[in-house]
Amino acid sequence: xxxxxxxxxxxxxxxxxxxxxxxxxxxxxxxxxxxxxxxxxxxxxxxxxxxxxxxxxxxxxxxxxxxxxxxxxxxxxxxxxxxxxxxxxxxxxxxxxxxxxxxxxxxxxxxxxxxxxxxxxxxxxxxxxxxxxxxxxxxxxxxxxxxxxxxxxxxxxxxxxxxxxxxxxxxxxxxxxxxxxxxxxxxxxxxxxxxxxxxxxxxxxxxxxxxxxxxxxxxxxxxxxxxxxxxxxxxxxxxxxxxxxxxxxxxxxxxxxxxxxxxxxxxxxxxxxxxxxxxxxxxxxxxxxxxxxxxxxxxxxxxxxxxxxxxxxxxxxxxxxxxxxxx
Length: 327
Fold this sequence. Notes:
Elements: E1 14-20, H1 27-35, E2 43-48, H2 55-61, E3 65-68, H3 78-86, E4 91-95, E5 100-101, H4 106-111, E6 119-127, H5 134-143, E7 149-151, H6 156-159, E8 170-174, H7 175-180, H8 192-202, E9 206-216, H9 223-239, H10 249-266, H11 273-291, H12 298-304, H13 311-321
Parallel strand pairs: 1-2, 1-4, 2-3, 6-9
Antiparallel strand pairs: 4-8, 5-9, 6-8, 7-9
Helix pairs in contact: 5-10, 9-11, 10-11
């Protein structure tokens, strides 16, 4: 489907939206960096899931808008939709509590592509933290290259599901298009950003990757955490299985592993290869189990999941739709 371009947004009012839970003392630094941007945010909205470490109070002292919800009310799509409904800006910037702008013009670079009226959303580049291990650095480099790009329907035959890749760690979306296309799915355990980007592209809009909009963000997951994260990934894909027709996730995972193996060989870091194989197995096993979660017992699904508090919501939604779930 083709759409006409929307009017370009040249100087947008930016609403930054950050869901939080026990964000820690460093969170104040993120808010400060955002307030120092060359493109000043119109507002910063924090939706806090009843933190016990003073995150909400710290945010209030920083002068941002703070809204509190119960931990049981959080989900990756619904909570962001709630915040978007409160936002006054014409561009919504979604960030996570552990992503730090790499410079003072991150927001400016993130929204610059909206000068093209066909661009619906933009995601920024993630740089690994200085203490990140080599596998995490290689993963960030694979998913977030140095060159900016724009993706549209024409890329689907070549890129498959990677065409829809987008990350709410640092992403901007035009609010008018966000509302037009029905916002993020909810409840959703994972991949709300990918599913929305897919809707944009399938409706004829484009998605931009802004390599100059940089944030520092990475993780040091254990093997168990990798398994749980990819279990949730599989669950989200099963609940939105219309995306399967575009590509198998495993193909993209294989390309990442090959890239990491080649880099480890070039860097003579062979001692990391067993860890790479173990991580890859944990991810694949978790993902495949997640896709089959409806055949698993209730307790096992919750034990396998990284986001355990959302399962009551998933169950209620599935029951309302008449789909059989295991919980």
